[in-house]
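Following the same procedure, the fold was encoded as C-alpha cells, giving this record:
***
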Amino acid sequence: MPTIPRSAGLWLAAALIAGVVSCKAERPAAERASTAPERIVRENLQIPPDEDVRQPAIEVPEGMVHVPRGGFRMGCDEAADGPCSAAERPSRQVWVSGFFLDATEVTVGAFTACVKAGSCSQAVAAGECNFGEKERDSFPINCVTWDQAIQFCAWAGKRLPTEAEWEKAARGTDGRPYPWGRDAPDAGGTFRANWGEGLARNLWVRDQWEYDAPVGFYPNGAGPFGALDQAGNVSEWVADGYREGYDPEDTMDPVVGPTAAGRAVRGGSFREYARRLKTFARDWHEPTFWYSHVGFRCARDAPR
C-alpha cells in the first residue's frame, strides 16, 4: 500500500472538512428549516409580550392613565380575599386589551361644558347633586343616568370602561384588595379614600368630607396605574349590564350587554362602608335613574 506523505494527508483532511462545510451551506432552505426546532408561540396572561419593550413609548392623552394589555385575576377568591358574595364569583384569569382610563372621575366643570355644547342633557340639580352648585366644578358629577354618562364620554371621544377594564385599573396584576394595596383605608392615620362609616355624622367627616370630595383629593389612594378615587367618593357607572356572578368561560375582553337587572357600578362611595371599597366589589343600579352617590369616568382604546 503506497504511503501518503504527511503534507498530502493534511491537505486531504482540509479538503474533506471544506467539502462538508460547503455541503451544509448549500443545503436547500426548506430542508434546513425542517430540522429547526419548532417555535412555540403563546400569549402570556401575566405580562405583555416582550416586543412591547422594544416599541416606542405610548403617548398617553392628557388627564388619562395607560393600562397595558395583559391578564389579571378578576373576581373574589375566598382563599385570597376573604368572604365573597355570589356576585363577585368566580375568580378567574381574564385578558384585557390595552386602554386609557380617566385619571379621575368626570367633574362638574367638564360635564357642564358638555351641556353648554349641546351634547349632554342637564344633570339633576337638587339636594346632594353637584350640578349647578357654586364652587363645585372640581367635584365629581353625580345625579346622572347611565345614558348621560354615555353621552358625555361620546362627546369627549371616549366610552365607558367595561367592568373588566375598571377592575384591572384598580387592582393591577397582584390581586390587591384596594387600589393602593393591602393597607386599610385609614392605616397610620392617612386617609386614602372617602367612604361612609356609619350613621353618625362624626364618623362621616373623619376623612374631612361629609359627602363627596373634590376629585383627586386623596393622592395616597392612587391605583397601580395612577388612577385616583377608584375607591369611594362616588360609585361609577361602567359599560356592562349586571349579571349575578361571572361567566367562567368569558375571559378575553369580557363585556356583558343589557340585562333586566340594570347596569353595573363599581368603586363604592361616600355613603358606603369600607367593604365596598374593595377592588372586586360590585353593585348595580337601574340605568334610567340617577343617584347622588353615583358618577362615572371614561375610557379609550390604546394601541397595546
Summary: Residues 1-46 have pLDDT under 50 and may be disordered.
